[in-house]
Design a protein that fits this description.
alpha+beta
């Protein structure tokens, strides 16, 4: 297939939940015009090259119970390949103890977030698994679009071991957070969230997104997490999904130790409440009432260190970049 594709300016890609929130802020007409220009059904060459240089990608999928999960697929750069603009080939699968694995297989909907922490670049691709052999898989592109760098903490990566050396745990699942989980969340400056909506005629649309803030930006109250939603691109991919289907899967990473905390639970969106003012800069809130927990110590071969300016960003709260996603 020719890598140069002329966009035929399709109809706006937003579903009812996204349109509802865009209308709530008075941006429905504007976003109808924007969506047709920025959401593609193929990967531009720049995105194809970007994914191929990554050492990891965040993936989102939905298990047989209908619960969404976010997880990490990692490998030496080149483990992601795009043989043509409508296909991404992934030479990695989740560990056996990773709940993400329950949502993957031929014909399943999947979302990928390619994020390069040291450059603070990110691009997203949602689609369907078109080929699967248990060791690698192909994704047929459904939606491809970019995001800006704001709220991404810059970190340099390195491998603590070969990503081919896997150490799956026993995979115990819990129904509630413990103190170690809460401590990790309380100091986190980054999370990833999977959401999805079943729409007609598009079918299941899964999305995985990044959220960031100063350490402690997520409030923990027992088994309920409250997340501020800052000024963004007005796509409302995540919150629009949660309006239609109030389920979310969260991923927290201990970047120094390679520990992974994966959560799934019931979600709600808070658009109008005095509580919003308690979160500096927030325009709205969303919550996850945690119902399923999987903690996987040392699951990742990757580790990250802050780059030279991140400590300043942490201390001052000044985040480089333009608009949040």
């Amino acid at each position: 297939m020719n890598a140069t594709i002329t966009d035929p300016a399709p109809a706006a890609p937003w579903h009812a939940g996204e349109r509802q929130l865009q209308a709530h802020i008075g941006m429905a007409e504007r976003m109808a015009q924007v969506g047709a220009k920025v959401i593609r059904d193929y990967m531009p060459d720049q995105h194809r090259t970007f994914f191929e240089q990554l050492p990891f990608v965040v993936a989102g999928a939905v298990d047989a119970q209908g619960d969404p999960w976010a997880g990490v697929l990692e490998g030496e750069p080149g483990f992601l390949r795009s043989p043509d603009p409508t296909t991404l080939r992934v030479a990695a699968v989740p560990d056996a103890d990773d709940p993400l694995s329950a949502g993957l297989g031929a014909g399943q909907a999947i979302a990928l977030l390619g994020i390069e922490l040291h450059s603070r670049r990110r691009n997203r691709m949602n689609g369907q698994i078109s080929a699967w052999d248990g060791k690698r898989f192909d994704i047929s592109v459904g939606e491809s679009f970019g995001n800006c760098p704001q709220y991404i903490q810059a970190r340099e990566f390195f491998f603590s071991r070969s990503p081919a050396l896997r150490f799956p745990g026993v995979g115990h699942e819990r129904a509630a957070l413990n103190e170690a989980d809460r401590a990790l969340i309380a100091q986190a400056d980054t999370l990833f969230v999977t959401s999805y909506a079943d729409t007609e005629p598009a079918g299941r649309r899964v999305d995985v997104s990044h959220r960031g803030g100063k350490p402690g930006f997520v409030r923990v109250d027992g088994n309920t997490l409250t997340v501020p939603d800052f000024s963004g691109n007005r796509f409302f991919n995540t919150l629009g999904n949660l309006v239609i289907n109030p389920r979310a899967g969260l991923l927290f990473i201990d970047f120094e130790r390679g520990d992974v905390l994966q959560l799934s639970g019931r979600a709600e969106v808070v658009l109008d409440s005095p509580e919003i003012a308690a979160f500096e800069g927030a325009e709205r809130l969303w919550r996850v009432h945690v119902q399923r927990v999987r903690a996987r110590p040392g699951a990742l071969a990757l580790r990250w260190r802050f780059n030279s300016y991140s400590p300043t960003a942490l201390a001052t709260g000044h985040w480089p970049g333009a608009v949040a996603a």
